[in-house]
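Sample entry copied in:
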Amino acid sequence: MSHPFVPSPNVASIKESATIAVSQRAKALRAAGRAIIDLGAGEPDFDTPTFILDATKAALDAGATRYTAVEGILPLREAIAAEATRRRAGREAAVTAGEVVVSTGSKQSLQNATFALFGPGDEVLLPVPSWVSYVEMVGLARATAVGVPGDPARGLKVTPALLEQYATPRTRGLMLNSPTNPTGAVYTAEELRAITDLAASRGWWVISDEIYARIAYGGAEAPSVLDVAAQRDRLVVVNGVAKAYAMTGFRIGWTVAPRAVSQAMTALQSHTTSNAATVSQYAALAALTRTAEADAAVGAMVAEFAERRRAARAILAEIPSLELVEPEGAFYLFFKAPAGDGTAFATRLLEHEGVAVVPGAAFGTPEWVRASYAAARSDVEAGMRAIVRAWTA
């Protein structure tokens, strides 16, 4: 006699990642013979820079195939700590390698931090719209995610006043993301300072997801909480190599956090994945330390993203009523759908125009839609024209 599978309470309420689901649906339609333009992906379409691939091969030839310390190889953690120290500009003791944990992608880094900091009875403030996995991560930690709707007049960003409006005595922290997925909005240094000051005054933890920091269009890297926070004793900063260096498949992310938090995350990781892939750590080390080559590669990619953004905006300007968040970073366009139904519009766009985008419901904003311009410029332009056609259909 067979028995149906009943999921445990640990996973019963988890929803599949909506962005991955859209990508899989697009691939299935393509496999069935449909011509599909995928603007749902959050993945750079560029090749990994050659100097990083060469460093990867050299590491393999040198025997980088065995376990490392759970928290990562020392040279990589030292490079990450040195960059964090530079951002603190001598305001306190240098960040040390012992405050860095390297993980299997920034997604694991975020999960490690969420598990280490939050638990049953805790509430965690999430600016809305927010990346699809934040809510699930907080839930897996048995804490409660509290959505804080962003201000439309500020690119759907939150303010200290909004955070205080949704805070309760059970609030233990918040999760920030800048440049922001799904909107492309970037928090200014002043905005980050105001939020970190509030968090410090209330004793909240701040997890700052800065994975898109180098993909910004203001002529410099986006501000970090490390640049502005008065103290970092309640900060966990998350970053990685996936987006800026086109290294999504290498699966390397990291946290910079107080030593006690880093020790707790290392203990947790020792029972889940152990160390991140050894050869990938050496690839990340090359990305972070061979700065001239890295700056040139990242600069070229960001310039192309900027050109795609310009082309996309020019086409979407044909829709006078379009409400769009101005993307100052990352590689997304976030706009309000016609009739305020992002799911219906995304479905119509995929089934009738062959263009995959992500409904805003995945990010807590069902009236909106996210389209990525991390695709060939010709595909981005064709996708934008399809959006214009679907808008008036």
Residues 291-316 form the longest helix (26 residues). The longest strand covers residues 171-177. The chain has two domains: 18-47+293-392, 65-289. The chain is about 40% helix and 15% strand.
